[in-house]
Structure formats: structure tokens, C-alpha cells
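request received
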Amino acid sequence: MSPRTWVIAKREFLSTVTRKAYLFTLVLVPLWVSFSFSMGSMSTAFLSESGKQTPRLVGVVDGAGILGLAPGERDTLTRETAIVAREEGEDSKKSRVFIAETFPSLESAQQAFQKNEISNFLVVPADYLASGKLDEYRRSGGLFSRSTSPPWGPWLRGRLLRGRVDPTIVARVQEPAETSTHVPDDHGGFKIFHAADEVGSFLVPFGFAMLMFTTVFTSAGYLLQGLGEEKESRILESLLSSVTADELMRGKLLGLGGAGLLMGLTWGTIGLSVIVAMAPVFLPPPSTLALLFVYFVLGYILFGALALGLGSLVNSYQESTTISAILSGTAALPMLFGLSFLTEQGASHPVARALSLFPLTAPISMAMRLSQGSVPWWEIALSLGILALAGWFVLRAASRVFRVALLLYGKTWNLPEILRWVRQA
Amino acid sequence: MSAVLLAESVHKSYGDFVAVNDVSLEVRAGEIFALLGPNGAGKTTFLRMALDILKPDSGRLEVLGAAPSTELKSRIGYLPEERGLYRKQKVRPVLEYFGRLKGLKDAQARERAATLLARLGLSEWADRKIGELSKGMQQKVQVCAAIIGRPELLVLDEPFSGLDPVNTRLLEEVIEEERKSGVTVILCTHQISKVEEFCDRACVLHKGHVVLYGGVDELIRSHSSEAYVVRTRASLEGLPGVASVERDGLETGAPLQRVVLQQGFAANDFLAALGRLTEPVESFSRERLPLEEIFIQVVESSGESVRDLLAEGKRAELIEQAKGA
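response:
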């Protein structure tokens, strides 16, 4: 690496990290994310507390007379709503309590419902035992409103069996299993997978994928923007009389990659600190973090070189933003499959594997899958190999295009011409 | 004098278009060399090859005693025709950056930038953004960037464009100072009067070929006709060897007479005849064709018209001067 490359890298780095836009992004994004999370946590806590303090009143109309409840009599139903945290190694569960009051008729229940005295009610028809059909009335039929319904099924099972079989059997029929899941640990044994970890296994991979996406494309965006400005201001010929096109390209990649890395490390450190402080169990192992770093570097080289090669072909900053959008859209493709990638089956699905091997989508796919764990080593090695090879090839090709196209202004190109440069330059 | 730049049969094409065709020339150490030619003649391509921005397809090119290479870039200063600087950045850091790219240490770059800014009257603008400066000032900053690395070879492409007469004079002084300190200068310009004024030797490129090459005085002499200009009241028609006489009727006092001698008649014999006249001879000189006229003749001999081009260049120059004034 020549001293001139370092001079360029230093200038690109310093002129980027001292920009107001960069500093705002560096500081404001973590603040905004923290604010959003705190607001979300506060509202969850508020709802949870309020739900616990005021049990919700619901109604039941026993048309079949099988529930053993007299009109006006009340019973309690409890639904576990969420596993919100880990306390002393155990999942800490939140629950919502419902008080079921029996109504003599459908009309009386409807009146209570319309007066907002009850939030839901269940009608058990006379032929229930034969048909198994029930009618539930609630305020809305939305997808998420189901979770606010009382746990009618287990409650009905309990009511039907009460007095007929042993209460412990009734309890098991109501709640047949509380399964502990065991997964391989780092020492060849097994550890209990706590349900709370599922939250981490969703948020952490997504967080890392977003972090990598943002930092890689912030850097690539600055590369495109800088090159666009230099082409517009016609400074390149002066620069090329002092340095080679390769030195210029390497210096830019290094300097702006450093700026992206600084942003990623800052955000990553804040994120990891929050995880360590609040839920260390979500922290990915150091080997995963090291792999994520390698994916960042290789991903940045690939996208940075693409940005510079394509950026040297355009004549203005406006044109370069179009390229930036196309590149980032392609890289973000794995996020479209986001949820399905974060299940065991999804992570090993052929689509997930293909996107992990395709160089343009590999960094984000792997960021999501690695943070989730359980990616075969050969897949990681193959994906890294292909990504490194693609980065090397694109770097060479971009360097050739960059060398030829840099000083030619106002010309439109076609693919055969560009390929000729790649072959001949 | 040793050659600072040596080209032998240099050739460069872009696809089917031949930009530089079999160019051979030499730029000697310590001289100011003019590289001339109409737009598209191949000057910029030739210079880019000398600066190792482009590679020649064939031929031999040597700069400062070696083939163009990255290592030589720090010994060459270049003011390109396509001007450009970081408009959103301040003058001083931009100059220091160019100094660092030319191999100066941080402290050297700072010191050199300050010296040059003072020399070109830009000290008070050093901490202003380049975009806030006038075109002429930006041009001077660009000149500073070209010479900040203390080059051995300085290539100036249209250095006077955009400058008012005062700053043109200032830049002429700077170029002269550089030459006196041993720097070899290659000057590309459409202002051919500057070439006569400044340059030791010149090369005219046209369609990639060298069409004129040599010392400026020698070129002018060799392209001048066998005519003499004499200022006297005497009638010259009857003198021995005189083929024709044209008299300038506009002059007051002794008229200026353009005398063409018969082929083969010696100038010394004509001078001796003038000495025998009873009327005094106030001046006698060989007619000298301006370099601009020679340039036009040479280029037009290939069927091209460059008068419009030059007129356009001259008009633009006058407009710039008027703006500056």
C-alpha cells in the first residue's frame, strides 16, 4: 500500500466523519432506537400492569347446562400472555386474568356486551356435546384481537371434567405439558433453551443484519456521493496527475470503509452493551461476532468496489443515487424473507442457503442466519470463499472500469463497451 | 541540454479514433516549451500519457529520464484544462492535501501552501471555501496546487484562461520564477502571442500528428517570406534586385515599405544599396510572420479552418480581460 493511498484514505475518512450528516447519524440513530425501545417497553409494562390489576369481565351463556354454573355465578380464567424476561434462570411469565360471569340468555349477555359491562361472551348451544360448536362474541374480528380472548378451550375442559375425574387429571387435561427444550451447548452437551431466548433469537439476527446493511450502504453511499461530486467538479484529472487510479480507488475504499466501520462499531458496541446489561443470554458467541466482522469487511469490499466501478460511469450525484438504490435493494433481499429465515426450517431452506451463497445477498443472509446459530461450517466456508472471490473479481474489474471511465465525461455506456474495458484496461 | 521529455513515434488510439499518431518530440531541461494545436489535436491525450494517466499503444516515451510511472508523478506539476477543486472545502486544507499527495510531509505541505498563497495574493482567502472564490481566484488556487510539490516539470494547460490582465501578469511572473529555479515548463495555450513572448520552442499538433516543431524564433524565421520592411522616404522601386514594393499609405512621416527581392538576390547587396540612398533609412528588418499566422497556415494547409477557433478563443480571452478590468 503506497503512502499516497494512506493520504487519500485519511482525507476521505476525516472529511466524512466530520460531516454534520455523519455525526447526526452516528449519534441520533442509537438515541432514536433506544427511545423507541424504551417507549415500547414502557407501554408493554403499562398494559401488563393494568391487565393484572383489573381483570377483564367476560360472559358465558350455558345453553347446554353443562358448565355447572348458576346464572350470575362467576369463575376465573387465566391466560399466559407473554414470557417477558428471565428471572433467576427461569422464564418470568405475565398473565391476564378474566372473570367469567354466567348469563341466563343470549339477549341478557348481548345487553351487557352493548353496555360495555363485558368485553366478550361465549354461548354454549344446547347441542354442544353433540356438535362441539360454540359461538363467541367480541368487539372485533381482527387477527390480533384473538389474543385478547379468554382461554375458552382449557376452561371448558376443566368445567366439563370437574367433579367427574381426579382434579390433578383435570389440571393435566387443561394444561397437558410444560415442555423444557434442550439444545446443544458449546461444550458438546445440552442446555435448556428458555422461551425468553426466542425474543433474542428474533431481535439479535435482525439487529445484526440491519447494522451490517446500514453500515455497508452508508459507506457505499458516501463512496458514490464523493465520486459523483468529484466527477461533477472535474477534480479527477488533477488527482490522477498525482496518484494512480488504483491508489485513488483503494484510498477511497479504505477511508470510507473505515468511516462505515466506525459507525458499525459504535452502534454495535452500544447494542452489545445494552444486551450485556439487560439480557446477556442474547449475546452471540465471540466466534459469531468475528464471522460477522469478516462478512462486513468482505461485503463492504464487494459493494464498495461495485459502487466505485459503477459510480465512475455516471456523470452526476443524482445518477449515482439510482445505483445506490439498486445495490441496496439487492442486498436487502434476505430481509424480505426475514421471518422465515429465523426459524430452524427456514434457516436451512434452499432459498436461505442460496441467498447465503450468492455474493450480493450473502452478508445480510448470513448475518441473520449466524446470529440465529446452527449454520453448517462448510456452508460458512463456501459462502465466505465465494464472497471473497467475487470481491476480488469485482475489485479488479471495477479498477479497470474506474481507470478508463474516470476522465470521460458526459458519455453514456453500453455493456459490451464496459466488458471490453474490463478485458483490455 | 538533456531531455526532460522525450517522445519517439508515440501512438494512441481510442477504438477507431487515432488521438496521437507517430509523435516524436523532445522537451529540454529548463526551457518553456509550447504544445499547440486546435481542439482535438491530441494535446491532452499526449500530456496524459506523459503523466502516466494513460498508456501509449506504441512508441517510446520518457519523462525525467524514465518511462512514465507512478513514482514520477511527485516530480511533475500539472494544471489541467479541465479545472476542478473541492468546492465545499477550504483553500488551505485542499492545497495541503495536494502537497501530501506530491510526497510532502504535513509540515512541509503547510509551509509550502502558506508561501504559495502569499505569493499569489490569496492569503486572506486561505480559510474560505473554494466555492466562495471568484473564477480567477480558483484558477490561482489551481496553479498553487500544480506547483506545491516543487515539480521539476510543470505542465500548464491554458493557464491564463479566466485571469484578468493583472493576474495574467502575476502568473507570467510565477512561471518565469519557476523557470529561473530550473523547472522545465510545458505550456498549452490558444493564446499564441504568449508563446512568442514566453516559449523557447514549440510543437504544433494537428489530428494527432506533429505539423510544426522547433525553436520559436526559428519557426517564425523559416516560415517568413523573403520580404523586407524598410522605413524611408526614398523610392525603392528602382534599386537593384527589387521585384516589388508595397507602400503603407496610412503612415505619417517616412512610409513603411514592404520589399520583395528577386529570387536569388542577396539581402546584403540590397542592404548595401540602401546605404547609398540620399534619403535616410529609419529602419530595416526582415518581414516576420506572427506565429499565429504560421499556425493558421499550417493547420489550414490540411484543409481545416482554424481562424474561427482562434477568433473564438481570442474573443473569450478579451471578455475575460474585460470582466477582470
